[in-house]
Amino acid sequence: MGTTSTRPRSEGPGDSGASKAPSNPFAHLDGATDEAQSHVIRYLDAAAAHHEMQRMRSAAFDAFAPAPGERLLDIGCGAGEVARQLGARVGKKGHVAAVDRSALAISVASSRHDGTPVDYAVGDITALDAPDGHFDGVRCERVLQHLTDPDEALRELIRVTRPGGRVCVIDTDWSSYAWDGFDHMTEVAGHFPFPDPGAGRTVRARMVRAGLLATTPLPVTLRFTTPEDAASVVPFFDPHALGLCVEPDLTKRFLDSVHESAERGDFLFAFTMWVTMGRLAGA
What we know:
Oligomer: single chain
Distance between the termini: 28 Å
């Protein structure tokens, strides 16, 4: 990146801007096998293209309200699709710093650069190499759930945001998931550990404690009526992801039940993601 880079003060394996994460390929992408890395990138692409994820991101984009000429940070940028949308909105007079903990994700994002004013860099959400008050707005999607200390990360996001600037945090409340038509859901979900599985619903309280103003939480419920549809967004229903994280016997029992539900036509799965906005005091 150029003079506005957010190169990390310290680096290590991981992804999505997370400094601490459980040992699974979705959280520690750079330390995963080549096969797992390829699968996670395909999963990220499929999720980004899914209509339910696009609906959530559209709501988040509107809430964040990027404007021409702004300087923005997208932390946990993954393959960079949202960063490029932000770049198109801020235009040539603006700038977007797209940062992810995973060097592989940044390599993929950089390879897809489309000429918008976006720079890509590996970085740690808890130690961003950016001056105080550097950004007009910061955006953070699906990162806090991987952290053992989300408040530390939020403080760093606030530090690099200017007075009067805004912070947009998007995260999942995995404890909100609801299902019908099949068995073993709770057992399977337990094999996808998150340090903070309810991260999404806790963001507003964390923002309030951190002193942010005008905190606005927006719940977006994602819903799926076939396992094939769900698998693009929810790794619980992806046979390959299950093979990476769940023992074979439980995987078989779960998938058998899911397939029976699909054949009957009564499959249902839903969960809530939270888009939470906060604003710093000042001009």
